[in-house]
Design brief:
Radius of gyration of chain B: 17 Å
InterPro entries (chain A): PurS, PurS-like_sf
Oligomer: heterodimer
CATH topology of one domain in chain A: Ubiquitin-like (UB roll)
Helix content of chain A: 25-40%
Strand order of the largest sheet of chain A: 2-1-3
EC number (chain A): 6.3.5.3
Number of helices of chain A: 2
Strand content of chain B: 15-25%
Structural class of chain B: alpha/beta
Main location (chain A): cytoplasm
Order of helices and strands of chain B: EHEEHEHEEEEHEEEEEH
Distance between the termini of chain B: 26 Å
Strand order of the largest sheet of chain B: 2-1-3-4-11-10-9-6-7
Largest interface: A-B, 12 and 20 residues
CATH architecture of one domain in chain A: Roll
Number of strands of chain A: 3
Number of helices of chain B: 5
Largest sheet of chain B: 9 strands, mixed
Number of domains of chain B: 1
Largest sheet of chain A: 3 strands, antiparallel
CATH class of one domain in chain A: Alpha Beta
Protein name (chain A): Phosphoribosylformylglycinamidine synthase subunit PurS
CATH topology of chain B: Rossmann fold
Radius of gyration of chain A: 16 Å
CATH class of chain B: Alpha Beta
Organism (chain A): Arthrobacter mangrovi
Distance between the termini of chain A: 16 Å
Shape of chain B: globular
Chain lengths: 90, 257
């Protein structure tokens, strides 16, 4: 079943405390190769049947209204993926 | 509804002739402070009406309070799911029509998600949940919820939150300042990194107000802060928040005459 992936990231100028805490934990673990960490959200919307342009448009609308708050977050991706790649990395 | 004091002497609200004013208090799944808000309305002399988020009926109330808590567990973003609750359609329409609406803490977050107020709340800049008595300055005493105070008057009410850092872009902040729409400002140290020490704001019409600290927790001697803005008070005797509720009740009663 196809799914639509929506990625939402905190805006660059917005403090991301979770990302900061993760960056600190990485340093404590001795993994010093990273600078900043930013933590976003990934949503997977399952589609019954074919992904039409209309459904994709609905997903974009959902991404801009419910899934993100444009004051503090950016939608960085709205994309259809095929099942085989779910959870296995793209 | 009868009131039972837990400690101390309970004094029912003095008869201010305000009992005809009906203030709705909305409960979402995860709301915590609805009963405190209702009690504050009654202590101020008004009539509190419980409203359920899943209903489509405001029951003819004269004002609405969206209380604090963790509606929907703060899932997604604080206030993000509550904002789409069935009752919120009525609240948004009524607010645009001039109905007084107050959002406290999580309720403030709901109002920003509903775009009734600009900006948003993100995690406190120090990352910790904070719970303390907080001094505020009433910057705008012309709103439906602040008219009982004098402009510049200071109050002390509890502050308790995790996502309390008020943010908005510079243009929005300049507009809020220029139009006198900062309703409450933190005094002393800024507890959470809020832009320009903003603790609460109002819409242009002055009927919709949101603030992070909790005036409803400073309305009854024995259960409030240990301080009033005027100085120390008897054990937990601070009632500086009562004016918020008396403000709206008086406005409703004056409008009904």
């Amino acid at each position: 079943m196809p799914r639509i992936v929506v990625d939402v990231m905190p805006k660059p100028e917005i403090l991301d405390p979770q990302g900061k805490a993760i960056a600190g934990a990485l340093r404590r673990l001795g993994q010093t190769g990273f600078g900043e960490v930013r933590q976003g959200k990934r949503f997977e919307l399952t589609v019954e049947g074919e992904v039409t342009e209309e459904i994709l448009e609905q997903a974009r609308h959902a991404a801009a209204t419910l899934l993100s708050n444009p004051v503090i977050e950016d939608v960085t991706r709205v994309e259809v993926i095929v099942d085989a790649t779910i959870g296995a990395g793209e | 509804m009868s009131e039972t004091p837990l400690i101390g002497d309970f004094s029912p609200a003095p008869d201010r002739g305000l009992s005809g004013a009906r203030v709705g208090v909305v409960t979402f799944p995860g709301t915590l402070d609805d009963r405190d808000a209702s009690r504050a309305v009654r202590l101020a002399g008004g009539t509190a009406v419980s409203l359920w988020h899943g209903d489509h009926d405001l029951q003819g109330v004269d004002a609405v309070i969206i209380p604090g808590g963790f509606s929907y567990g703060d899932y997604l973003r604080a206030g993000a799911i509550s904002r789409f609750a069935p009752l919120m359609d009525q609240v948004v329409d009524a607010a645009k029509g001039g109905l007084p609406v107050l959002g406290i803490c999580n309720g403030f977050q709901v109002l920003t998600e509903a775009h009734l107020l600009p900006g948003s709340m993100i995690k406190n800049n120090h990352l910790h949940f904070i719970c303390r008595d907080q001094r505020l300055r009433v910057e705008n005493a012309e709103t439906a919820w602040t008219s009982e105070y004098a402009a510049g008057e200071e109050i002390v009410v509890p502050l308790k939150n995790q996502d309390g850092q008020y943010v908005a872009d510079e243009k929005t902040l300049d507009e809020l300042e220029g139009e006198g729409r900062v309703a409450f400002r933190y005094v002393g140290t800024n507890p959470n990194g809020s832009r320009r020490d903003i603790a609460g704001i109002t819409n242009a019409a002055g009927n919709v107000v949101g603030l992070m600290p909790h005036p409803e927790h400073a309305t009854e001697a024995g259960f409030g802060p240990d301080f009033s803005a005027a100085g120390p008070v008897d054990l937990r005797g601070g009632t500086d928040g009562l004016g918020v509720f008396i403000s709206v009740l008086k406005k409703i009663v004056a409008g009904a005459k």
